Every structure is written in structure tokens, then in C-alpha cells.
Give the backbone structure.
Amino acid sequence: MVRATLAALMAHWWRHPLQLVSLAVGLALATALWSGVQAINGQARDSYDRAAQLLGQNRFARIEAADGQRFGQARYIALRRAGWQVSPVLEGTWRDGDRRLRILGVDPVTAPPGAVPQTVTGGAGLRPFITPPGLAFAAPETAAALEPATGLPELRATAGLLPGVLVMDIGIAQNLLSAPGAVSRLIVAPEQPMGRPPLAEIAPDLVQRAPQARADISRLTDSFHLNLTAFGLLSFAVGLFIVHSAVGLAFEQRRTMFRTLRAIGVPLAVLTALLAVEMLMLALFAGLAGVALGYGIAAALLPDVAATLRGLYGAAVPGTLNLSPGWWLGGLAVALVGATAASAQSLWRVWRMPLLAPAQPRAWARASARSMVAQTGIAAGLALAAVALAMWGQSLVAGFALLGAMLLAAALALPGVLSALLGMAERAARGPLALWFWADTRQQLPGLSLALMALLLALAANVGVGTMVASFRLTFTGWLDQRLASELYVTAENEAQAARLREWLAPRSNAVLPIWSIEGSLAGAPGAVFGVADHATYRDNWPMLRMQPGGWDRVARGEAALINEQLMRQAGLVPGDMLRLPGGHTLPVAGVYSDYGNPRGEAMIGVDLLTTLYPQVPRLRHAIRADPAQAVALARSLVEEFGLPPDNVTDQARIKALSLGIFEQTFTVTAALNVLTMGVAGFAMLMSLLTLSTMRLPQLAPVWALGLTRARLARLELVRAVMLAALTMLLALPVGLLLAWALLAVVNVAAFGWRLPMHLFPADWARLTALALLAGGTAAAWPAWRLARTAPADLLKVFAHER
Amino acid sequence: MLLEVRDITKGYDSGGEHVQVFAGVSLSVNAGEAVALTGESGSGKSTLLHLCAGLERPDAGQVALDGQTLGDMGDGARARLRRARIGLVFQQFNLIPSLPVAANLRFQAQLAGRENVTWTDTLAARLGLVPLLGRYPEQLSGGQQQRVAIGRALAGRPGLILADEPTGNLDEATGDAVMDLLLGLVGETGAGLLMVTHSARLAARLDRRLHLSGGGLC
Ligand SMILES: Nc1ncnc2c1ncn2[C@@H]1O[C@H](COP(=O)(O)OP(=O)(O)OP(=O)(O)O)[C@@H](O)[C@H]1O
Ligand SMILES: [Mg+2]
């Protein structure tokens, strides 16, 4: 009996290969979308972990020169002799033609555990590592790209290193970089002997910096990743709906067969078990294909993602993908879990179906009307939960729960809302054809609703993430315009040079504004205090979120401070509150400015007060106001006059061009993912329409027989799909905007401490609407074409055969 | 001449071989005339009816309605003709599943722009459909569905009624009442009726009887 039943089930696929293909492709696409986004995400995250781990950059305190320059290793030896547990590091750039490599010279003997990668310090490698010509460790991709090397020590590929970095012994590095006896910084081991003399006594020109004082790269890149994670969540939802729709339709198509099988005596248990096994096998194969496809998508997008991250944050992401078992399994799990959940529901329906239930679609539609009411109820509950989360949720988890609840509520509410709208249209309809059109559309809704939900999510994701990224770009570039109001920025190499620079620049520019700062603790967390000159550049351009009247005057007089948004949120400070500066001086807060992309709190005080409070502040960096037309020439003569490294002089136009370029890349990735999601949703709709089209003959045949041509019916089918897509878009728009709001105002604040203002882009919506209509029309085109070409004999069979 | 069928031939290709249903069949139906079509199962009665309605094209021969040859018309013209001139009752599954009975009843007449509300009400009453008007087709029995189909065919006062065993699902008394209605309309409006039936008793009530057998009429 099992064999006969199995044969009957398989025979259906044999007779309808298209249905089987669409089911498999649906499962595969859903898996691909999910695993592709995950792969990109995981890969990039992997790279930051490596970056953060490298030399334990953020975990150890460091000692460096107050001006950040290299210093002689005699200082290091003096500190060691005095009992300080420190280890020297020399960092520099090595050029060979147009290749640039970051060289890290380390001392494996004195480095605290965990500060230097295991592979470097491990066992037998030590001797050849420290004795010339030495060994250099590099990430496999870097090592492969470098061979054959010129002037470098022997290369060793090792996993766990950042691309573009060579790690070698500090002695070898000093030779290579032509910096004999030079040290960039000292790593301070966490355990230090008691009673050692203070740093100021041994090396007064050196300062100790707390761990984390440098901007933590992974925190910055997180903001981009949040974008991708949100996309991952959405693609997961879209994928689940597509799997659900594909599996649901596979059951729907075979409903009459199930009934017949049961009528001739196949036990329900056998039928159910066979169907479950069949679905699992299918999900397994389609899931594997989907993961492979997702890999392809990720690999195709990765160069762009890598470029984006490198440009945005200077993080190197290898341009190749590793296959991690994690996302293989994750991808398969999506297919399996999705298919199981969907089959469970369908199997339950088969289970509950009365043996002689009419095979008529209206009966089915009425049965699903009941489940639609339940669905709408769940949607309402989720919507309430979302409102509660939006009002009281604070954490990142709450933010993501809000996103999830909102999207699910919207998707579940869709059939109910559409049905209500169609019902209204039906009641308002004049003429038999219009009446039939609306009634028939409503009846088709249960079969189409999952595909429409996927479309809704894809559209909402498109609107939401698009709004977020575009808002981000607009705000960020606007902010850059304000923050980078000066034409040139120059950093001197030492104080003496800085003084000469100021003198030289005075007659050649409109103003020379100091950008001097000290690092220190603000409200209990690492932060920085900047000095600001009393100049129109700031008064006119600085991106203030809030400002008390007369604020700039009070800052100039040294009577008040300005803080960035991060500090405001971290410390709960508002204008009027008192701010305690490092060293104990307190000032009232006069205003708050936006400071996107900066993870730490900052404050601004008058530059005179800064130099009074912190006389040792390095006075190296300056902003120069000049005629924009002269800026490039001025920059060139600065480099020539003072022999400054070109990196020390930046002109504002170049930074802005760079930033804009970076955002274009972010857009490329987002747009690619958007189109992909839309494409998959469109495919889900095509699949549903194709499947429904075979079941629709009984509905269409009477209308045809009563005097409508097949061509006209086909046109109506097309209109129907486009109309449903339009209605879905109409509903997706507010959902997408809510999504954007949640991302900008809730998730971003919880994750990074700053809130992005939301901008609306109606032109994008128009484009997206066109795309949605196109997707609906394209999806309906083939089924409609097939309908127009259906042989009359096939339509006539409806009147003669049992269905 | 209302309906004129001349020398038509029809066959199907199924499973690679050609099956001839009938060949060289000719018949005619005049306005106001009721003709019965009988024959054993599978002899091609339904096929012949479909050809008369222009739902399918014959392999050879001509079908003419009101003197117009269907073979010369395009899809659209034939659809228009069907809408306006022909009342169709199929063997089964006649109704539009997504519309309630009342809308089904009116549908074709409205489509053709010739709805007459009093006439539709009269039809509904005489066919015993009044209590069923709000229901959907799948909530009706086979006989009830068949009565709605007959009502729909008559609602637009067509010139030609083509009915495929319209009373096959009805008990004798109801069948007779439906027959009365059909024949009454034919008498009233001068419409022609071509009706497939297995019942010799019903066939005897009509003006003429044609028998389809062995691929031809006799
Ligand atoms: N689409 C088709 N493809 C192949 N053969 C067909 C098709 N439609 C009908 N036939 C065949 O044509 C012949 C005539 O069928 P038709 O339905 O006209 O018979 P009928 O006289 O109406 O029978 P019944 O009294 O059972 O309704 C049958 O042998 C049938 O199998
Ligand atoms: Mg028949």
C-alpha cells in the first residue's frame, strides 16, 4: 500500500513537472536569499574580529609619545629596567611600487600573552623569527599576492591575520622601515609590579592611554552591519513566506487526489507520513541548492561589500568567501524549518478534511475565511506588542523584537485588509463583469496571500532600508558639510613646526583654527575634550541639535561646554546640567551637537580654557579657512614648504568626495539586495499564479462559455495581478516607513547612541511602485498568456468531468 | 433558418491516435422549433452541441446561426454572438463559483445588456429558486444548480437555447415543470431549442427527434 500510494503521489509530479520545479525553486530561492545575506554578514564580521584581535589592540593599555610620533627605544629600556612590564611595537608603511603594506614589528619575548597572534609566538618558530633575515607572517591572501617578494623576510601564511599586514620581529621591522632604534608605542601588560616608579619620572614625554581609547573598529562597522542584519531578518521572513506558499500550493494542487486516496482506503497515518517524508526530502535537496546559490550571490556581492567597509572604516575584508559550516546548516535549517512548518499546517488541513468535502474552491475559501479571522487577530496582537515595544523598549533586543513584531503583524494582516478592500469594491461594483472580477479576486486571495505577503515584506524592506540608507547618506553628507566647513586640515609633526605653520599661514589664509584635544574620562567612560576657537566657522556651521541662547558666547568666554549626542545619551545630560571635565573642572552644558559615526562621548570648550586647564595639550592639528579656489594650491605649497607627509594635509573637497563615493558603494550593495528580494518575491507570485491557473479553469470556463473571449479573460487576469500588487504596495509603504523609523530612532539609538533624522524620498516610492506593478504584471504575464491560448476543448472539459 | 449545421466532421487526437467522433453531420433548427438530440453515451451529443454554440470549431463543415457562418468569425465576434443570442445549459458545473445564485442568474443577461428584472424574478419564482438566491453554487444540490443554469440561459431571452441534459439531475415532477418552462418560452418568444436527452418520454414532447449513432445522424 505504501508503494502504491507513493507511486500515486509521485505520478502527480510526473504529470505536472512545472509544479515540482516551482516548489523546488521556491525553496531554493528562499534559502539562497537568507544564506547569501548571512554569508556576507558573517564573512565581514569574521574580518573585524580578526582586526580587533590583532595585537590585542584594544585590550591593552599603551604608552606612546604625547605627540603620537615614534620615540627612541632607550625609553623602553629605561622603563623595563624600572620594572615596567611593557613590550615595544613598531608600526609603519612599506611601499614596493604601488603596493602598500602595513608592517607591525613586535617583540615576541616581552609581549603579554594574547597580544601577539599564537602562530607567531608558538614554539619552534621563535628562533628563525627573531634572527635575520627573519620571518614575516601574513594572511594567506596577502602572502599569496606578495610572492615573489623583494626585500622582505621570508613569508609565512597564517590564518587569523588581517589582510595587508605583515607581522615580524621588531628588529627586522626597524631595518625594513629604515627606523633603527625607533618604537611606535609600548603595550602595557595588565599585571604590573607594585611600587614601580611613575611614568612621568622615567619618561616625562610619554603618556599612557587606557585600553579602548582608540576608536574600536568593530563598533563603527556595526552600524553598517546593522543594516545587513536587518536585511537578513527581512530576507528570512520573505524566505519563510515563500517556502510556506510553495508548500501550501503543493498540497492544494493535490487535494482531490488526497481525497480519492483516502476514499479508496489509504489510512490517514500512511498518507500523512508519506507526505512528510516527501517534503523533507525535497526541502533537503532544494535547501542544498539554495545554499550554493546563496554562496554565489554573496560571492558576487562581496567585492562591493568589502569595498564599502574598507572605504567607510578602513577595515580590510578579504574579497573571497570562506564556506563556514555554520551557514550551510543555517541555510538548510531555513528550508527544513520552513517546509516543516508549512507542511504541518497543510497536513493538519488534510487531516481535518471531511472525506467527501466538496472539492470546490469556494468551500476552501470559506474554510480559509475562518483562519483569516484568526490571522487578523494575531496580527492585531502583534501590532499592540510592537506599539508597547516602541514606547517602552530600550535595548537592541527590544529594537529587533519591535521590527519582527511589526513586520509579522503587517504580513498577517494583509489578507484580511485586502479581503475587506475587495469586499468594498465588490459592493460598489456596477455591472456583472466588475462584480465577478472583484468576487473572483477575493476568492483567489487565499491561494495568493502568502505570495502577496512575501511581496509586502519585500516592498516594506525596500522602503524601510532604502529610507534608512538614504537618510543616513543625506544626514551624513550634510553633517560632513557642517563639520568639514574649513577648506584645509593640516597636522604638524611637532610643536615647533606647528608654531611656524601658524605664522606662515596667517597672511595666506582667512583664519587658522586650532583643533586641539585631550583624551580623558567623561561621565565615567573614555572620551575627549576639544578646544574651539571663537569663529563664525563654528557659529554658522556646527551641527547643533540643541542650543541655549548665547551658547557660543558663553563657550568662547570659557563659561560653558557643548557635548555630542552620544555623551548626552550616555550620561543623560541636557543643556543646563553640569559636566565634569577630566581633572575635575565643571562647566554647564550649553548645547548638544550631532556626531555620527563616533562611538565615544566628546565635549567642546573654549580653546583658551582648554590650554589653561590642560597646558600639555598637543597643538598640532589646525583647520584653515581660505578661498576654496586656492585650497589645492595652498595644500601643495604647505607640503613643499614644510616637507609634511601628504597625509598630514587633507582638503575638504577630497574627504567629501571620498565619503560620497563610499555611500554610493553602500547603495550599490543595498540596491542589489533590494532588487534580489523583489525578484524572489516576484517569482513567488509567478509560482502561485501558475499553480492557481490550472485550478482556475472551472472558475473561468463558465464565464468564457457565456460570452467572454479567452483574450479578454487573460487581460483581466493581468489587471488583477497588477491591481493586487498595487494594493500591496499601498499597504507596504506605511509599513516600510515604520520600519525605517524603527531602524533610525530605536535600533540605531540602542546600538550606537545617536539618532538619525528621517528623510522621505517620494521619488523612490514612485520608482518602487512601478517596480511592484512590473513584478505583478510580469508574474501574471505567463499564466495569462497560457490562459489566452488554452484550447477550448480543455475549457469544455470542465462541463463534462468530475473535478 | 435559425441554426443550420452542414456536413460537419469532428475528431480528437488523444494518446497519439485520432478518434473520429462523427462525420458529415447536418441538421437545422427553425425559430420556435424544439428539437431533441438522443444517442448513447459517448456518441458525440455534447460535442455537437458545443460546435453549434461556437465553443469549438469543426474539423470540416459549417455551422451558421441567423445566416451567419461561425467559421468566418473571430473569437470576439463569436463571443458576442454567444452572449447575445444563445442560452447554454451544460451537463454539469454550469455556474460561476465565486458569485451567489442571484448574480449567476442575471450574469449573462447583464453581460449582453438585456436584463429584465421582472422577467428574472418570474424565472426565479417559476424555477423555485427564490429561497436559494443568496447562496453560493457549492451550497446547492446538483438539481438546484441545474435549475439556476436553466434560469440563467432563459434570462436574456436568447434566440437559440442549447441544453445538454438539462433535466438529467431532476426528479420527474421537477423535470416536467422545467420542460414546461422551456417549451413555454420557445412558444412565447419564437426561440429555437436543441436539447440533448436520454429520456424517450421527454423527447416525445418535442417537435422533432434526431438520433446520433455510429458517427452520423439518423
Ligand atoms: N477533449 C477531448 N479529447 C479527446 N476525446 C474527447 C474529448 N472530448 C470528448 N471526447 C470523446 O468524444 C466522444 C464524444 O464525447 P461527448 O462528450 O460528445 O459524448 P456524449 O454523447 O455527450 O456522451 P454522454 O451521453 O455520456 O454525455 C467520446 O468518445 C469522448 O471520449
Ligand atoms: Mg454529454
